[in-house]
Design a protein that fits this description.
Arsenate reductase; four-stranded mixed sheet; alpha+beta; Arsenate_reductase-like; Thioredoxin-like_sf; 116 residues; Glutaredoxin
Length: 116
């Protein structure tokens, strides 16, 4: 089954997952979330597949988050819109296989996800 990878080309963890998939002959499609940001609806779909809330996929160590959003009390809907407008704040990589998804870290989790 084809694995979709929500990817940021500047992320070493994202690159490592792509390398792992390639080395293990796993067919995958790259979705560069920086060049092609996800819409709010796409983010909601990914969250359902992850079975997580939007708060679980926010990169809280990003400079943008710390400077602009860290002290704000925002709703899930507001965060979804912020992530759509600022895709660098989304944890990555995210792997999607059919109706399920997972954060692609640590790399050991990717191996388990692929084999299931």
């Amino acid at each position: 089954m084809l694995v979709k990878v929500l990817h940021n080309g500047n992320c070493s963890k994202s690159k490592a997952v792509l390398e792992y998939l390639d080395e293990n002959g796993v067919p995958f499609e790259i979705i560069n979330i920086i060049e092609e940001p996800l819409s709010p609806l796409e983010i909601k779909t990914v969250l359902k597949k992850l079975n997580q809330s939007v708060f679980d996929i926010i990169r809280k160590n990003e400079k943008l988050y710390i400077e602009k959003f860290a002290n704000q009390d925002l709703s899930e809907e507001e965060w979804i819109q912020i992530l759509a407008e600022n895709p660098s704040l989304i944890q990555r990589p995210i792997l999607i296989k059919g109706s399920v998804a997972m954060l692609g870290r640590p790399i050991e989790n990717v191996k388990y996800f692929i084999e299931k």
